[in-house]
Amino acid sequence: MGAEVPEQAPPLGRTRFFLEALVGSGLFTGYFPIAPATATSLFVLLPAFFLARLPVWNAATAVLLFFVGVPIATDLERVWGKDPHRVTIDEVVGTLVTFFLNPVSLWGLGVGFLLWRFFDIVKLPFIDKSQRLPGGWGIMMDDVLAGICANLVLRLVLLLLPVLRYH
């Protein structure tokens, strides 16, 4: 009889929204007007470069940001719409996953970045399918899977071109 009322986003307090936008957008790099995911990934390269030499810290940071990112991405999706471009904490995690146990030189960092962006943009079918997971899980998981693909290909590249490894 009556029109269906869409589910309303739970009201986020100003402070909570600010903090979630800060973390969820990769320290506001997700607000970059052009290619915010790529901008965030570039922003994360420096910490990823150093964390690649500290595998325990790299893994701990990626896992922590993943589990912090799922509820934040869920909340921000309710405010900004389905898989919003401003949410880039998933790019932060994907970048860290790409360089996990891959200590690279500066050239290797560039190759890893290109591989990561390739797999994130092209989205192989199983990566694309993971976006159907509900809320923040779908936002975060596709970038983790793209990061794993980039990590594996980067390993192969480093085997073939050891000059790209950190010495």
Helices and strands, in order, run as: HHHHHHH
Rg calc: 17 Å
Name the overall outline. globular
Integer average pLDDT: 92
The count of β-strands is: 0
Task: Enumerate the spans where pLDDT stays under 50 for 5 or more consecutive residues.
Answer: 1-9
Helix content: 55-70%
Indicate the structural class.
mainly alpha
Which strand-content bin applies to the residues?
under 5%
- What's the story with the biggest beta sheet? none
Number of separate helices: 7
Span of the ends, CA to CA: 70 Å
What does this 3D model show about the protein?
The chain is an all-alpha fold. Helix content is 68%, strand content 0%. The chain is built from 7 helices and no strands. Helix 2 packs across helix 5, helix 3 runs antiparallel to helix 4 and helix 3 (55-80) packs antiparallel against helix 7 (135-160). The longest helix is centred in the middle third of the chain and has 26 residues, at 55-80. The radius of gyration is 17 Å and the shape is globular. The termini are far apart. Residues 1-9 have low confidence and may be disordered. InterPro entries: PgpA, PgpA-like_sf, YutG/PgpA. It holds the Pfam family PgpA. Keywords: Membrane, Transmembrane, Transmembrane helix.
